[in-house]
Amino acid sequence: MPNVIDKNYEDVAEVEQVYYGTDFKQSSDISANDWAILKLNHPLGRKYGHVGWKSIPTSTLTHNQKAFFFVGYSRDFPNDRYQKYFSARPGWTASYEAGCSIVSEESGLLLHDCATAKGSSGGPIIGVINGNPYIVALNNAEYKDSRTGQDIINFAVKMDFLDKLTDRK
């Protein structure tokens, strides 16, 4: 269901095939291979547009602080502040955050400060390169303080996995 806004949508595409990096039947650990790509039964990009991806070196990503934005369907949006504009419950309208950063890389995962919550896994972290938007990472997981529930840092998957999957150089 592309372009879901306030739980409303026009089109539905069925998933024909799933390519995934982590089999959670084997492990529930956070992994650099925590990604999934869905092959749909008809191309929605012709109607809704398409955002490509770019594999960017971590040093370039971390050098460009507050240069990225994040979109996701998290369970905490719309929150009380925005609920007056939407009739749908949280998770049925995408949230957007501008000015987030990728701060470092550890064990093959990017660490970022974009605001995330349950449900936003797989959401794109997007950068504008030469005037065009590109997905530069995929939100993976969040790490919280177990006592307070406060976010400490978030993890993202680097896009080079997709280059390898598609044989793109």
From TrEMBL:
UniProt keyword terms in alphabetical order: Signal
**Annotated Gene3D superfamilies:** Trypsin-like serine proteases (2.40.10.10)
Annotated InterPro entries: Glutamyl_endopeptidase, Peptidase_S1_PA, Peptidase_S1_PA_chymotrypsin
Recorded superkingdom: Bacteria
Record protein name field: Serine protease
**Organism, scientific name:** Dendronalium phyllosphericum CENA369
User: Source organism lineage?
Assistant: Bacteria, Bacillati, Cyanobacteriota, Cyanophyceae, Nostocales
